[in-house]
Design goal:
Elements lengths: L1 E6 L7 H14 L3 E5 L3 H6 L2 E4 L1 H4 L21 H13 L4 E6 L1 H14 L3 E5 L15 H22 L2 E6 L6 H9 L4 E3 L7 H13 L5 E6 L27 H13 L3 E5 L11 H19 L5 E6 L2 E6 H4 L8 H7 L5
Parallel strand pairs: 1-2, 1-4, 4-5, 5-10, 6-8, 6-9, 7-8
Antiparallel strand pairs: 2-3, 10-11
Helix pairs in contact: 1-10, 6-7, 8-9
Bound molecules: 6-O-phosphono-beta-D-fructofuranose (F6P).
The site of 6-O-phosphono-beta-D-fructofuranose has 12 residues, from loops.
């Protein structure tokens, strides 16, 4: 059988582990795999590279994706969708494995329902906001990157008796912020799921200082909201899937904290650092397992499905059920974090 794979949306550590697991499993069954380049753009334009177990064996520790990625959405124009279908037939493919977040998987799901294209999905994102899987690979590496950065920021914050506000990614879900906030013993964790109460944060920072803690770390989600402030400007950049480019809240929060507490405050936006680097052991293993199971679905011709982690097991779920609902942070995590945020 001939299987194509592609990686779409924001990259993350562990994508190459999936590709390697997929290629090896397909080859073990006597099939071949090709990689479409730069997400759905490669599927539209028919750009690909052949992949084999030898070529992909060394890619496991590499961050990013050897296939390149983009936020191209073929459904922006029905002609582009037809080009994807044409590419599928021209390349004589038997299956197409899309590795991506909600947008990329949404396209795979529609191609399956609209054109009966034999697609399979594999969930990825540092944001950990996909509803049908317990964890996405990339998230763990991202948390370790944030933790490493905050551990460094803490020493300078302490030396200068400052507050440092750290803005992290995650779009409209607070997984990265809450988990890294717990891992870094932050003094405040501001997530999109809860309206930020900056008065309470300022009071806490002042009280902790009076008690002897002379610095502070405030974690804030790029998608968090401040009471009465619309942070999204009219001319904000929008991507192919209609998502607005987020960023900038950390600087605002820092200004407010400095003004209201009188404590010197700085802000740092970790930005795309969070998506880079070599995958953690957890992400290498999870990515590998998902790649193997995506290949097995292709071999069984079980299409229109997404592989997912449930507990310790890799299962498959209908793509149509797996996309379209963002999974926000479960309140229990903020409740637990709250023991240290009083
Ligand atoms: O979805 C992953 C993510 O890193 C988000 O956390 C972030 O908002 C977005 O992608 C950034 O996208 P881009 O790389 O297109 O700026």
């Amino acid at each position: 059988m001939k299987v194509a794979c592609l990686t779409g949306g924001g990259d993350c550590p562990g994508l190459n582990a999936v590709i390697r697991g997929l290629v090896r499993t397909i080859a073990n069954s006597g099939g071949e795999t090709i990689g479409l380049l730069e997400g759905w753009r490669g599927a539209i334009e028919g750009n690909f590279i052949p992949l084999d177990p030898m070529k992909t064996d060394e890619i496991l520790p590499q961050g990013g994706t050897i296939l390149g990625s983009s936020r191209t959405n073929p459904y922006k124009d029905e002609n582009l969708v037809k080009q994807v279908v044409d590419t599928f037939h021209k390349l004589e493919l038997d299956a197409l494995v899309a590795i991506g977040g909600d947008d990329t998987l949404g396209v795979a799901s529609k191609l399956y329902s609209d054109y009966k294209l034999p697609t399979i999905g594999c969930p990825k994102t540092i944001d950990n906001d996909l509803s049908a899987t317990d964890f996405t690979f990339g998230f763990d590496t991202c948390l370790n990157t944030v933790m490493d950065a905050v551990d460094k920021l803490r020493t300078t914050a302490e030396s200068h008796r400052r507050v440092i506000v750290v803005e992290v990614m995650g779009r409209h879900a607070g997984w990265i912020t809450c988990f890294s906030g717990i891992a870094c013993s932050a003094d405040a964790i501001l997530v999109p799921e809860e309206e930020a109460d900056l008065d309470a944060v300022c009071e806490r920072l002042k009280r902790r200082r009076a008690d002897g803690k002379m610095y502070g770390i405030v974690m804030v989600s790029e998608g968090a909201e401040l009471k009465g402030q619309n942070l999204i400007t009219k001319d904000a950049e929008i991507d192919d899937f209609g998502h607005v480019k987020l960023g900038g809240i950390g600087a605002r929060v820092a200004k407010i904290i400095q003004k209201n507490t009188g404590i010197e405050t700085r802000d740092v936006t970790l930005g795309h650092l969070q998506r880079g680097g070599s995958p953690s052991a957890y992400d290498r293993v999870l990515g590998t397992r998902l790649g193997i199971h995506a290949a097995r679905l292709a071999i069984k011709k079980d299409f229109g499905k997404m592989v997912a982690l449930r507990g310790l097991h890799i299962v498959s779920v209908p793509l149509a059920e797996a996309v379209g609902t963002m999974r926000t942070l479960y309140p229990e995590f903020m409740d637990e974090a709250g023991e240290f945020l009083k």
